[in-house]
Amino acid sequence: MTASQTYTIQGRTVTLPCVVRDASSGSATYLVDAAAARRLLPGPELDVVELWPGRALASLACIDYKDNDLGDYNEISVAFFVRERSAPRGLPVVSPLIGFVRARLATYIHRLPVNQAFTCEAGRTIWGFPKVVHDISFDYVEGRATCVWRADGKRVFTFSVPRGGKQRMPDTNLVTWTYLDGALHRTAFVSGAEGLGFRLGGAKLELGDHPIAAELRALGLPRRALATSWMEKMHGRFEAPEKR
């Protein structure tokens, strides 16, 4: 990396911030087993956010990137809402619920498969994102977006959410945590959207026979989602990671 935060990835130049100009995204938030989620965090600095004792907040998302500095590709995110262990816990139930509704909770991305090699290498090199290249397909039928994730010739899951919405999400400042070169890093990003739809429940999740599906079962999935969102036209900007 140079002083101007420019990287060379596979012979191409990537300059930060990385800009997303157009993408569609579906996500669902679940309550999962907190102990199982905590075992998936790689370092001691972070802890899962428990909505109430024993139940952590997790997110599944499928993103169809259409115009992005890192290319046109599909991505899946398995993430946990987290806090720094040194930060105050706040009030049980009330603090995490307010933080979730107001988009103030940070995330730790546990899995982030993509279907293109360039964005995989860029994400791992620049931010420490756990990207791998897997088979990810999208299908838009009858008002739903369906995403199928396959790895090693086996199905991990089929995930679908209702598509459509008329709301607008203003640019919102968000934070995600990663481990880069063995150290915790904080990445700030901004996300906004048009065509936002939000509802209670609504997601459908069918797990397959891949070992990652067994990992998701250990968290208590599939189960009813707390909430589901769809963003028809999403944009965003990822800044450089900051070492803690």
Describe what you observe in this structure.
The chain is mainly beta. It has a single domain (6-243), classed as Acetoacetate decarboxylase-like (Beta Barrel), CATH 2.40.400. The protein is 13% helix and 56% strand. It is built from four helices and 16 strands. It has helices spanning 34-38, 94-101, 117-126, 211-218; strands at 6-9, 12-15, 18-33, 46-48, 50-52, 55-68, 73-84, 106-111, 135-141, 144-151, 154-162, 167-180, 183-200, 204-207, 227-238, 242-243. The protein has a seven-stranded mixed β-barrel. The chain has a four-stranded antiparallel sheet with strand order 9-10-11-14. Strand 10 and strand 11 form a beta hairpin. The longest helix is centred in the middle third of the chain and has 10 residues, at 117-126. The radius of gyration is 17 Å and the shape is globular. The two termini are 18 Å apart. 38% of the residues are buried. The model has no long low-confidence stretch (mean pLDDT 94).
By DSSP, the count of extended strands is: 16
In DSSP terms (H or I, runs of 4 or more residues), the helix count works out at 4
The CATH class is Mainly Beta
Give Rg in angstroms: 17 Å
Query: How are the strands of the largest sheet arranged?
Result: 3-6-7-8-12-13-15
Helix content: 10-25%
Strand-pairing-aware structural class? mainly beta
**Tertiary shape:** globular
| CATH topology tier name | Acetoacetate decarboxylase-like
- What's the main sheet like? 7 strands, mixed, barrel
The CATH architecture can be given as Beta Barrel
Distance between the termini: 18 Å
**Element order: H for helix, E for strand:** EEEHEEEEHEHEEEEEEHEE
